Amino acid sequence: MPWAYGDGAGLMFVALGKSFDAFESQLRRMAGEDDQIGDALFAFTRPLSGSYFWCPPVSTGNIDLSALSL
Q1: Residue from 10, 18, 3, 4 nearest 54 by CA
Q2: Is the per-residue pLDDT at 34 higher than 60?
């Protein structure tokens, strides 16, 4: 997702998923941790930060944690 604010601009990666596993796997591959081949995107970009956010499931207007295996 591209963004621009004032003098700055960049690219933001936004994704949704059931768990963090797929994201962790993708980030490891991009960084070259599995095969020592970094993603070509890093040739002209520089990651500045990262964040994960968890949104709990909602059912009938209330948080529903019954389906989680805690």
Answers
A1: 18
A2: yes
